[in-house]
Design goal:
Oligomer: heterodimer
Shape of chain B: globular
CATH topology of the largest domain in chain B: Rossmann fold
Strand order of the largest sheet of chain B: 2-1-3-4-8-7-10-9
Largest sheet of chain A: 6 strands, mixed
CATH class of the largest domain in chain A: Alpha Beta
Order of helices and strands of chain B: HHEHEHEHHEEEHEHEHEHEHEEH
Structural class of chain B: alpha/beta
CATH superfamily of the largest domain in chain B: Thiamin diphosphate (ThDP)-binding fold, Pyr/PP domains
Order of helices and strands of chain A: HEHEEHEHEHEHEEHEEHEHEHE
Number of strands of chain A: 13
Bound molecules: thiamine diphosphate, iron/sulfur cluster, magnesium ion
Structural class of chain A: alpha/beta
Strand content of chain B: 15-25%
């Protein structure tokens, strides 16, 4: 493994993408300001079907915002980063064990679907400690998927058409390959010809449909408990929500926690199934708009009934969450804004 | 398959200096037996950026983003140091939007070569002033004379730590070929700034204008001991400021005493060159080849 300290995040993403063209697994990590700088490079990777993993450590934004504190306000930015339409895969971890396994899973997805994968963690996970059983990290059972690979040679076509949009991948040094950020033909040469544009554009986007079809929706969501009161969340709030579930039980209140783990592709059918017939959906997020819930609405038409939100950069604390959930469930409050923590 | 054989449609203007640079590269690729197995051309965005698509040799090409060819090339080279990596970029690419990457490449001294198509204008976007256009000059597209001072590519490369710095002239195909060839053979980061007439937008620095001024450098550019560095750098910088009357071509500076980035990595990772990242197996039978347990155990605190 080689690690390079780049001069800036523009260099970081483009070095990582360059590296991936040689067959090395490539990744880079950044927070909001750096992710903003990476957006053009991510668009190039999408256009050139280059696998790369970007770990996105979200802080309190906009700008440098609360630079030493946490946040979840960039979910929609991660989902839409880079100009143009291309497949972006977005996963979000809720605790350290998930962060570990998602980083490997993210690289598998990047190589299998030949596109950028954004792995969201938050400052409050990235800069925190937790005690975990070493047995959780056995390693030997971790699957590696590199997707379709070929040697290539002189007559190789990097962007050859196929039914599922995926073309067998060869590497620089092994095959005669052309890459370009301009629209290109199957060989990777520049062309603006209309019928080629139609076909190759669709080929790229088909890969996200393929991913949507192949990845089990059940693996994109964690469900804890079973209740008519659903706390809908993602990321680091997982911990407080699960702890609140136990505390509330002692007070005679049941909740179910639904943690979304993948936002693109989105588990729309499974979410519809889980949320069907629930009497209350409470969106819990570290941002102002409840962006994760907005994605749910966009994909399924389902709207939350109430909101527990926090954008002070501090993580959601157990006591304030228990209190807020009681207010929502017992008193029917529609929106509680949290500000706990020093 | 036929697509490879079909000659790419070359949309450069008639008389463009880029043709001279392309021809130099075709000749040297022939001489050095470069093909896709050992060679990658990485380009930026501009008229110059299309060069890899137009090369007739069986090479690989990566046409990247405006200003970012250096960063992509760095990722390619460090993951597969067995490849010869040639960067092809415009003067806007290199000294405008991408100047941060250009400067920082000097700090690393990776064994690569950047060929700058130095035409004084943003050719592809219709002739705005590039960072190498002199103050006071009014090329065809400018409504008023340029009020920015120009960057001196040679001096900037020297100050940044480039270990091979040369200047060519696009219509001197053989001379440019020799310079790029030497740059490729040089061990370390090399710049060849090629003066490239753009007959469409630069009506000042034309072929005739250059031909009346260019001459071959008469200095010994090679550093033979570290003590010589300040003297050789100073001589090169001093020569690089000649312009209005006489414009020197050739190698300004060459120093192979500085360790390359690859050599620096090799000190830390002893098998880096023989087992570079692009070669390393990632899986064995579908499972991870890395023993995560061992990595985690190594971090165990009492
Ligand atoms: C980020 C970004 N900004 C602007 C452009 C538009 N653009 C394309 S080429 C170019 C300038 C090209 O000039 P130069 O690098 O000197 O190359 P030349 O065409 O002269 O060879 C610009 C500004 C772009 N492609 N990307
Ligand atoms: S605009 Fe200038 S640099 Fe571009 S192809 Fe035409 S002559 Fe060459
Ligand atoms: Mg130019």
């Amino acid at each position: 493994m080689v690690v390079v300290q780049s001069e800036d995040e523009i260099a970081a993403i483009n070095m990582a993408v360059g590296s991936s063209l040689t067959g090395a697994r490539s990744a880079t990590a950044t927070s909001g300001p750096g992710f903003s700088l990476m957006s053009e490079g991510i668009s190039w990777a999408g256009m050139n079907e280059a696998p790369v993993l970007i770990t996105y450590y979200m802080r309190g934004a906009p700008a440098t915002g609360l630079p030493t504190r946490s946040g979840q306000a960039d979910l929609k930015f991660a989902l839409n980063v880079g100009h143009g339409e291309f497949p972006r895969i977005v996963i979000a971890s809720g605790d350290h064990e998930e962060v570990f396994y998602d980083s490997i899973y993210g690289l598998n997805l990047a190589e299998r679907y030949q596109t950028p994968v954004i792995h969201i963690i938050e400052k409050c996970l990235a800069n925190a400690y937790s005690v975990l059983d070493m047995k959780l990290f056995t390693g030997s059972d971790i699957s590696i998927e590199r997707g379709l690979l070929v040697e290539g040679g002189e007559d190789y076509r990097r962007f050859a058409h196929s039914d599922n949009g995926l073309s067998p991948r060869a590497f620089l040094g092994k095959a005669r390959i052309f890459y370009t950020g301009d629209e290109h033909n199957e060989t990777g040469h520049i062309t603006e010809e209309s019928l080629n544009r139609l076909a190759i554009y669709e080929k790229r986007l088909k890969k996200l449909e393929t991913a949507d079809r192949e990845i089990m929706e059940e693996s994109m969501v964690n469900v804890f408990g079973d209740s008519e009161n659903v706390v809908l969340t993602w990321g680091s709030t997982k911990g407080a929500a699960i702890d609140a579930m136990e505390e509330l039980k002692e007070k005679g209140i049941d909740i179910e926690v639904v943690q979304v783990r993948m936002f693109s592709p989105y588990p729309k059918n499974y979410m519809k199934k889980i949320l069907a017939g629930k009497s209350r959906i409470i969106a819990l997020e570290n941002n102002y708009y409840a962006q994760g819930a907005e994605v749910l609405t966009e994909k399924t038409g389902i709207m939350p009934d109430s909101y527990i939100l926090k954008w002070t950069g501090r993580p959601v604390l157990l006591d304030e969450l228990v209190d807020a959930l009681e207010r929502v469930i017992k008193k029917g409050e529609k929106k509680v804004v949290l500000h706990g923590g020093a | 398959m036929e697509e490879h054989e079909q000659k790419e449609f070359n949309d450069w203007c008639i008389g463009c200096g880029d043709f001279g640079i392309l021809r130099s590269e075709e000749l040297l690729a022939e001489e050095l037996k470069l093909d896709y197995k050992n060679f990658v051309v990485v380009s930026g965005i501009g008229c110059s950026g299309k060069a890899p698509h137009f090369l007739t040799q069986k090479i690989s090409g990566v046409h990247t983003l405006h200003g970012r060819a250096m960063a992509f090339a760095t990722g390619i080279k460090l993951s597969n140091p067995s490849l010869e990596v040639l960067i092809e970029a415009g003067d806007g690419d290199t000294f405008g939007i991408g100047v941060g990457h250009f400067v920082n490449a000097g700090r690393r001294n990776i064994d690569m070569t950047i060929v700058v198509h130095d035409n004084g204008v943003y050719g592809l976007t219709k002739g705005q002033a590039s960072p190498t256009l002199k103050r006071g000059e009014k090329t065809k597209s400018l409504p008023k004379p340029n009020i920015n001072d120009s960057i001196n590519p040679i001096a900037l490369a020297l100050a940044s730590g480039y270990t091979f710095v040369a200047r060519g002239f696009a219509y001197d195909v053989n001379g440019t070929k020799e310079l790029i060839k030497k740059a490729i053979q040089h061990k370390g980061m090399a710049l060849v700034d090629v003066l490239q007439p753009c007959p469409t937008y630069n009506d000042i620095n034309t072929n005739d204008w250059y031909k009346a001024r260019v001459y071959n450098l008469d200095i010994d550019p090679v550093v033979k001991s570290i003590e010589e560095v300040p003297e050789k750098v100073n001589a090169a910088i001093s020569k690089s400021y000649e312009w209005e009357q006489k414009i020197p071509l050739g190698i300004f500076y060459q120093n192979e005493l500085v360790p390359t980035f690859e050599e620096r990595l090799n000190e830390d990772i002893p098998d880096y060159m023989s087992n570079y990242p692009a070669m390393q197996p990632i899986d064995s039978n579908g499972k991870t080849a890395t023993k995560y347990e061992n990595l985690i155990r190594a971090r165990k605190v009492a």
